[in-house]
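Lest this sound abstract, we think one record worth quoting, the chain in one-letter code, the fold tokenised, each line plainly labelled:

>
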Amino acid sequence: MTLKIHIDDSAAPYEQVRAQISEQARSGVLPVGYRLPTVRGLAESLGLAANTVAKAYRALESDGVIETRGRNGTFVAAAGSAAERELAAAAQTYVERARRLGLTQADALAAVQDALRAAYSG
């Protein structure tokens, strides 16, 4: 997990943490079940107060992005319907395969668009 906090940004640090973790979870960079660092550990690595990270974690939990399992830690939660989760997993597998094949993002997207047109046009 890579987070970057920009002090000169107009967004509050907790909001930057929340937004970046949310985006990484949504995009699959942080897969479902990924164990997040402790509040204290993440705060130290980012140079933030623990309360700042705790506030971001509370917001993420409220949004259903993460779940806290007591002393076991905090994890990326499964979000959306089963169909949406399956689709996200398939998309992640496709992206990994396209990268291994050396395709550009544009080539990979064009292939998906062609397949969608073929499947939904008739």
Q: What stands out?
A: The first strand starts at residue 35 and ends at 36.
